[in-house]
Amino acid sequence: MRWGIAAIWICLTGCAPKPWRAFESPQAPVGVRHVPASTPGLVLGEPTCAASEAFVPEEVRLGALSGVVTFNVVVEPDGSIDPGLQLYDDRAAPALVKAARDRFLTCKYPPPTLEGEPVAVVFSKSIGFHGRRAPLPAPTEAIVDLTDTIPSDFTVPKSLPCSPVGPLQKGSAKLEFVIHSNGLATDVRSVDADADPTAVALSKVWIESCPFEPARDATGKAITARVRHYAGSTAPAWNRLPTDAEVENSDAVPVLLGAGMERPRPTPECEPKRPVPTEFVMRRGIQGMVLVEFVVHRDGHVGEIVLKNPTAPPELFDAVESWMKKCPHEPARYKGKPLAVKILQPFNFRAGL
Protein backbone atom coordinates (compact mmCIF):
# COMPACT_ATOMS: atom_id res chain seq x y z
CA MET A 1 0.00 0.00 0.00
CA ARG A 2 1.29 3.41 -0.88
CA TRP A 3 1.68 5.93 1.91
CA GLY A 4 1.27 9.69 1.82
CA ILE A 5 2.91 11.98 4.34
CA ALA A 6 1.64 14.94 6.30
CA ALA A 7 3.72 17.07 8.65
CA ILE A 8 1.52 19.48 10.59
CA TRP A 9 3.30 22.68 11.61
CA ILE A 10 1.47 24.45 14.45
CA CYS A 11 2.73 27.74 15.89
CA LEU A 12 0.98 28.28 19.17
CA THR A 13 2.12 31.89 19.51
CA GLY A 14 4.82 32.36 16.93
CA CYS A 15 7.22 30.29 14.77
CA ALA A 16 11.15 29.44 14.62
CA PRO A 17 15.87 30.13 13.01
CA LYS A 18 19.24 29.16 11.66
CA PRO A 19 20.65 25.72 10.80
CA TRP A 20 21.87 23.97 13.92
CA ARG A 21 25.52 23.07 14.31
CA ALA A 22 26.14 21.37 17.59
CA PHE A 23 25.30 23.91 20.34
CA GLU A 24 26.64 27.25 19.15
CA SER A 25 24.12 29.45 20.95
CA PRO A 26 23.89 33.08 19.81
CA GLN A 27 24.25 34.20 23.47
CA ALA A 28 21.90 37.13 23.98
CA PRO A 29 23.30 40.07 25.97
CA VAL A 30 23.12 39.61 29.74
CA GLY A 31 19.97 41.22 31.12
CA VAL A 32 18.09 41.25 27.79
CA ARG A 33 14.36 41.38 28.37
CA HIS A 34 12.51 38.11 27.77
CA VAL A 35 8.77 38.48 27.10
CA PRO A 36 5.91 36.08 26.25
CA ALA A 37 4.72 36.16 22.64
CA SER A 38 1.31 37.34 23.88
CA THR A 39 2.77 40.61 25.25
CA PRO A 40 0.75 43.63 23.98
CA GLY A 41 2.74 45.77 21.55
CA LEU A 42 5.23 43.03 20.70
CA VAL A 43 6.33 43.05 17.07
CA LEU A 44 7.28 39.54 15.91
CA GLY A 45 7.13 38.89 12.18
CA GLU A 46 6.61 35.62 10.34
CA PRO A 47 9.66 33.34 10.04
CA THR A 48 11.21 31.84 6.94
CA CYS A 49 11.79 28.09 7.26
CA ALA A 50 13.01 25.17 5.18
CA ALA A 51 10.36 22.89 3.64
CA SER A 52 9.08 20.40 6.22
CA GLU A 53 9.13 17.38 3.86
CA ALA A 54 12.91 16.98 4.20
CA PHE A 55 12.59 16.42 7.95
CA VAL A 56 9.97 13.65 7.98
CA PRO A 57 11.51 10.54 9.63
CA GLU A 58 11.56 7.27 7.71
CA GLU A 59 9.32 5.65 10.36
CA VAL A 60 6.62 8.19 9.49
CA ARG A 61 7.06 7.65 5.76
CA LEU A 62 6.52 3.93 6.30
CA GLY A 63 3.42 4.59 8.42
CA ALA A 64 4.99 3.02 11.51
CA LEU A 65 5.05 6.20 13.61
CA SER A 66 2.83 9.21 14.20
CA GLY A 67 3.07 11.84 16.88
CA VAL A 68 3.65 15.37 18.10
CA VAL A 69 6.62 17.25 19.54
CA THR A 70 6.22 20.52 21.47
CA PHE A 71 9.14 22.75 22.37
CA ASN A 72 9.43 25.85 24.53
CA VAL A 73 11.28 28.28 22.27
CA VAL A 74 13.31 31.44 22.77
CA VAL A 75 13.69 33.80 19.81
CA GLU A 76 16.76 35.98 20.40
CA PRO A 77 16.82 39.75 19.72
CA ASP A 78 18.57 39.12 16.38
CA GLY A 79 15.74 36.81 15.25
CA SER A 80 17.67 33.56 15.70
CA ILE A 81 16.39 30.75 17.89
CA ASP A 82 18.31 29.70 20.97
CA PRO A 83 19.40 26.14 20.07
CA GLY A 84 18.77 25.07 23.67
CA LEU A 85 15.18 24.17 22.80
CA GLN A 86 13.38 22.86 25.89
CA LEU A 87 10.94 19.99 25.44
CA TYR A 88 7.46 20.72 26.76
CA ASP A 89 7.03 17.02 27.52
CA ASP A 90 9.41 14.06 27.39
CA ARG A 91 6.94 11.46 26.07
CA ALA A 92 7.48 12.03 22.34
CA ALA A 93 9.43 9.45 20.31
CA PRO A 94 13.17 10.35 20.00
CA ALA A 95 13.01 10.18 16.18
CA LEU A 96 10.26 12.80 16.18
CA VAL A 97 12.09 14.99 18.71
CA LYS A 98 15.18 15.06 16.51
CA ALA A 99 13.21 15.77 13.33
CA ALA A 100 11.17 18.54 14.95
CA ARG A 101 14.26 20.14 16.49
CA ASP A 102 16.08 20.16 13.17
CA ARG A 103 12.98 21.62 11.49
CA PHE A 104 12.57 24.41 14.07
CA LEU A 105 16.18 25.47 13.77
CA THR A 106 16.01 26.11 10.03
CA CYS A 107 13.71 29.07 10.67
CA LYS A 108 14.68 32.72 11.02
CA TYR A 109 12.57 35.59 12.39
CA PRO A 110 12.74 39.30 11.77
CA PRO A 111 14.34 40.80 14.95
CA PRO A 112 11.53 41.13 17.56
CA THR A 113 10.91 44.46 19.28
CA LEU A 114 8.72 45.84 22.05
CA GLU A 115 8.14 49.59 22.12
CA GLY A 116 11.06 49.96 19.72
CA GLU A 117 13.49 48.04 21.93
CA PRO A 118 14.99 44.63 21.00
CA VAL A 119 13.69 41.76 23.13
CA ALA A 120 13.87 37.99 23.32
CA VAL A 121 10.52 36.22 22.89
CA VAL A 122 9.42 32.98 24.53
CA PHE A 123 6.56 30.69 23.47
CA SER A 124 5.55 27.08 22.83
CA LYS A 125 5.52 25.51 19.36
CA SER A 126 4.44 22.11 18.10
CA ILE A 127 5.03 20.02 15.01
CA GLY A 128 3.04 16.89 14.22
CA PHE A 129 3.93 13.90 12.04
CA HIS A 130 1.37 11.54 10.53
CA GLY A 131 1.99 8.71 8.07
CA ARG A 132 -1.27 8.65 6.11
CA ARG A 133 -2.61 5.54 4.35
CA ALA A 134 -4.79 7.44 1.91
CA PRO A 135 -5.98 10.92 1.00
CA LEU A 136 -8.88 12.36 2.96
CA PRO A 137 -12.35 11.23 1.89
CA ALA A 138 -14.32 13.52 -0.39
CA PRO A 139 -15.88 16.55 1.34
CA THR A 140 -19.33 15.26 0.33
CA GLU A 141 -19.01 12.21 2.59
CA ALA A 142 -21.90 12.13 5.07
CA ILE A 143 -20.96 12.98 8.66
CA VAL A 144 -22.79 11.19 11.47
CA ASP A 145 -23.20 13.32 14.61
CA LEU A 146 -22.06 11.33 17.66
CA THR A 147 -21.36 14.33 19.91
CA ASP A 148 -24.31 13.72 22.26
CA THR A 149 -25.29 10.06 21.98
CA ILE A 150 -23.84 6.95 20.32
CA PRO A 151 -26.25 4.16 19.32
CA SER A 152 -25.68 0.98 21.29
CA ASP A 153 -25.06 -1.04 18.10
CA PHE A 154 -22.33 1.37 16.90
CA THR A 155 -18.62 0.89 17.60
CA VAL A 156 -17.08 4.02 19.09
CA PRO A 157 -13.86 5.44 17.60
CA LYS A 158 -10.63 5.14 19.54
CA SER A 159 -7.10 6.48 19.23
CA LEU A 160 -4.38 4.19 17.87
CA PRO A 161 -0.73 4.11 19.07
CA CYS A 162 0.78 7.56 18.84
CA SER A 163 3.73 9.36 20.43
CA PRO A 164 3.09 10.66 23.01
CA VAL A 165 0.02 8.83 24.31
CA GLY A 166 -2.50 11.63 24.79
CA PRO A 167 -2.38 15.36 24.07
CA LEU A 168 0.33 17.61 25.46
CA GLN A 169 -1.54 20.38 27.12
CA LYS A 170 -1.95 22.99 29.80
CA GLY A 171 -5.40 23.61 31.24
CA SER A 172 -8.49 21.95 29.81
CA ALA A 173 -10.74 22.15 26.78
CA LYS A 174 -13.92 20.60 25.40
CA LEU A 175 -13.41 19.84 21.72
CA GLU A 176 -15.39 18.55 18.78
CA PHE A 177 -13.81 17.08 15.65
CA VAL A 178 -14.47 14.80 12.71
CA ILE A 179 -12.91 11.33 12.51
CA HIS A 180 -13.09 10.18 8.89
CA SER A 181 -13.72 6.62 7.80
CA ASN A 182 -10.00 6.14 7.12
CA GLY A 183 -9.05 7.17 10.67
CA LEU A 184 -7.90 10.74 10.01
CA ALA A 185 -9.15 13.56 12.22
CA THR A 186 -9.99 17.06 10.93
CA ASP A 187 -12.05 20.15 11.77
CA VAL A 188 -10.99 20.36 15.42
CA ARG A 189 -12.84 23.13 17.24
CA SER A 190 -13.45 24.25 20.80
CA VAL A 191 -17.02 24.24 22.10
CA ASP A 192 -16.10 25.89 25.40
CA ALA A 193 -15.89 29.68 25.37
CA ASP A 194 -13.79 29.65 28.54
CA ALA A 195 -11.29 27.02 27.32
CA ASP A 196 -7.60 27.63 27.84
CA PRO A 197 -6.33 28.59 24.34
CA THR A 198 -3.06 26.73 24.93
CA ALA A 199 -4.98 23.55 25.80
CA VAL A 200 -7.01 23.93 22.60
CA ALA A 201 -3.93 24.47 20.42
CA LEU A 202 -1.94 21.59 21.92
CA SER A 203 -4.89 19.20 21.78
CA LYS A 204 -5.61 20.20 18.18
CA VAL A 205 -2.12 19.34 16.94
CA TRP A 206 -2.21 15.96 18.73
CA ILE A 207 -5.65 15.07 17.37
CA GLU A 208 -4.76 16.04 13.80
CA SER A 209 -1.42 14.20 13.93
CA CYS A 210 -2.46 10.89 15.46
CA PRO A 211 -4.36 8.02 13.80
CA PHE A 212 -7.75 6.75 15.00
CA GLU A 213 -9.82 3.63 14.59
CA PRO A 214 -12.98 5.08 12.99
CA ALA A 215 -16.49 4.66 14.31
CA ARG A 216 -18.51 1.83 12.76
CA ASP A 217 -22.26 1.50 12.23
CA ALA A 218 -24.48 -1.48 13.04
CA THR A 219 -23.28 -3.33 9.93
CA GLY A 220 -19.60 -2.88 10.87
CA LYS A 221 -18.97 -0.34 8.12
CA ALA A 222 -16.48 2.44 8.93
CA ILE A 223 -18.22 5.82 9.00
CA THR A 224 -17.22 9.45 9.24
CA ALA A 225 -18.42 10.91 12.52
CA ARG A 226 -18.30 14.10 14.53
CA VAL A 227 -17.29 13.35 18.12
CA ARG A 228 -16.73 15.28 21.34
CA HIS A 229 -13.65 15.00 23.53
CA TYR A 230 -12.81 16.54 26.90
CA ALA A 231 -9.09 17.29 27.28
CA GLY A 232 -8.00 17.58 30.90
CA SER A 233 -4.76 19.02 32.28
CA THR A 234 -1.85 16.56 31.90
CA ALA A 235 1.24 18.62 31.10
CA PRO A 236 3.11 21.20 33.18
CA ALA A 237 1.78 24.75 33.16
CA TRP A 238 4.87 26.14 31.47
CA ASN A 239 3.56 29.70 31.31
CA ARG A 240 2.66 29.93 35.02
CA LEU A 241 4.91 32.53 36.63
CA PRO A 242 6.51 31.76 40.02
CA THR A 243 5.56 33.58 43.22
CA ASP A 244 8.18 35.47 45.27
CA ALA A 245 8.15 32.61 47.79
CA GLU A 246 8.76 30.04 45.04
CA VAL A 247 11.72 32.09 43.78
CA GLU A 248 13.27 32.22 47.25
CA ASN A 249 12.68 28.49 47.80
CA SER A 250 13.67 27.42 44.29
CA ASP A 251 16.96 25.74 45.30
CA ALA A 252 14.89 23.27 47.32
CA VAL A 253 12.01 23.09 44.83
CA PRO A 254 13.24 24.17 41.36
CA VAL A 255 10.83 26.05 39.10
CA LEU A 256 10.10 24.81 35.58
CA LEU A 257 11.81 27.22 33.18
CA GLY A 258 9.15 29.27 31.44
CA ALA A 259 7.93 32.49 29.91
CA GLY A 260 9.06 35.74 31.50
CA MET A 261 12.30 34.22 32.82
CA GLU A 262 15.83 34.76 31.56
CA ARG A 263 17.10 31.27 30.83
CA PRO A 264 20.42 30.12 32.32
CA ARG A 265 23.44 30.18 30.02
CA PRO A 266 26.99 28.82 30.18
CA THR A 267 29.41 31.51 31.36
CA PRO A 268 32.15 32.82 29.00
CA GLU A 269 34.65 30.78 31.06
CA CYS A 270 32.89 27.55 30.02
CA GLU A 271 35.19 25.62 27.68
CA PRO A 272 34.37 23.91 25.39
CA LYS A 273 31.14 25.70 24.54
CA ARG A 274 29.26 22.44 24.02
CA PRO A 275 29.49 18.77 24.98
CA VAL A 276 32.25 17.01 23.04
CA PRO A 277 32.56 13.20 22.96
CA THR A 278 35.94 11.55 23.42
CA GLU A 279 38.15 11.04 20.40
CA PHE A 280 37.48 7.31 20.61
CA VAL A 281 33.70 7.89 20.39
CA MET A 282 34.09 10.26 17.45
CA ARG A 283 36.33 7.78 15.59
CA ARG A 284 33.63 5.13 15.97
CA GLY A 285 31.07 7.49 14.45
CA ILE A 286 28.62 7.16 17.36
CA GLN A 287 25.75 9.62 16.98
CA GLY A 288 22.27 10.19 18.33
CA MET A 289 20.11 12.29 20.63
CA VAL A 290 20.53 12.57 24.41
CA LEU A 291 17.53 13.90 26.35
CA VAL A 292 18.40 15.10 29.85
CA GLU A 293 16.55 16.77 32.69
CA PHE A 294 18.70 18.95 34.92
CA VAL A 295 18.58 21.77 37.45
CA VAL A 296 20.59 24.99 37.30
CA HIS A 297 20.73 26.41 40.83
CA ARG A 298 20.70 30.03 41.93
CA ASP A 299 24.49 30.12 42.24
CA GLY A 300 24.85 28.79 38.67
CA HIS A 301 26.00 25.25 39.42
CA VAL A 302 24.26 22.35 37.68
CA GLY A 303 22.58 19.88 40.00
CA GLU A 304 21.32 16.37 39.32
CA ILE A 305 21.39 15.34 35.65
CA VAL A 306 18.89 12.64 34.67
CA LEU A 307 18.86 10.75 31.37
CA LYS A 308 15.29 10.71 30.03
CA ASN A 309 15.73 8.54 26.93
CA PRO A 310 17.41 5.29 28.08
CA THR A 311 18.08 4.24 24.45
CA ALA A 312 20.63 7.06 24.00
CA PRO A 313 24.24 5.89 23.48
CA PRO A 314 25.80 5.89 26.98
CA GLU A 315 29.04 7.38 25.59
CA LEU A 316 27.10 10.47 24.48
CA PHE A 317 25.31 10.82 27.80
CA ASP A 318 28.71 10.66 29.52
CA ALA A 319 29.86 13.56 27.32
CA VAL A 320 26.81 15.64 28.23
CA GLU A 321 27.02 14.84 31.94
CA SER A 322 30.76 15.55 32.12
CA TRP A 323 30.41 18.87 30.30
CA MET A 324 27.48 20.08 32.39
CA LYS A 325 29.13 19.24 35.72
CA LYS A 326 32.26 21.27 34.98
CA CYS A 327 30.56 24.13 33.09
CA PRO A 328 29.39 27.04 35.32
CA HIS A 329 26.23 28.87 34.27
CA GLU A 330 24.70 32.28 34.66
CA PRO A 331 21.55 31.40 36.65
CA ALA A 332 18.03 31.92 35.38
CA ARG A 333 16.42 35.16 36.51
CA TYR A 334 12.89 36.34 37.14
CA LYS A 335 12.26 40.02 37.84
CA GLY A 336 16.02 40.40 38.13
CA LYS A 337 16.32 37.79 40.90
CA PRO A 338 18.21 34.51 40.39
CA LEU A 339 16.18 31.34 40.74
CA ALA A 340 16.80 27.62 40.38
CA VAL A 341 15.10 26.11 37.35
CA LYS A 342 14.47 22.63 35.99
CA ILE A 343 15.11 22.14 32.27
CA LEU A 344 14.33 19.28 29.90
CA GLN A 345 16.72 19.56 26.96
CA PRO A 346 17.81 17.38 24.03
CA PHE A 347 21.42 17.32 22.78
CA ASN A 348 22.01 16.03 19.25
CA PHE A 349 25.32 14.54 18.15
CA ARG A 350 26.11 13.97 14.49
CA ALA A 351 29.10 12.10 13.17
CA GLY A 352 31.52 14.45 11.43
CA LEU A 353 30.42 17.64 13.29
Description:
This protein is α+β, with helices and mostly antiparallel strands and 353 residues long. It has 3 domains: 1-133, no CATH class; 134-231, TolA/TonB C-terminal domain (2-Layer Sandwich), CATH 3.30.2420; 240-353, TolA/TonB C-terminal domain, CATH 3.30.2420.10. It is built from 6 helices and 22 strands. The chain has helices spanning 58-61, 94-104, 197-209, 244-248, 279-284, 314-326; strands at residues 4-11, 34-36, 42-43, 67-75, 86-87, 113-114, 117-118, 120-132, 143-145, 158-159, 173-179, 185-190, 212-213, 224-231, 255-256, 265-266, 288-296, 302-307, 329-330, 332-334, 337-339, 341-349. The strands form 7 sheets. Strands 1, 2, 4, 5 and 8 form a 5-stranded mixed β-sheet that branches. Strands 9-14-11-12 form a 4-stranded mixed β-sheet, covered by helices on one side. Strand 6 and strand 7 (117-118) form a beta hairpin. The radius of gyration is 22 Å and the shape is globular. The protein starts with a strand and ends with a strand.
Produce a short descriptive summary.
Helices cover 15% and strands 30% of the residues. The protein has helices at residues 58-61, 94-104, 197-209, 244-248, 279-284, 314-326; strands at 4-11, 34-36, 42-43, 67-75, 86-87, 113-114, 117-118, 120-132, 143-145, 158-159, 173-179, 185-190, 212-213, 224-231, 255-256, 265-266, 288-296, 302-307, 329-330, 332-334, 337-339, 341-349.
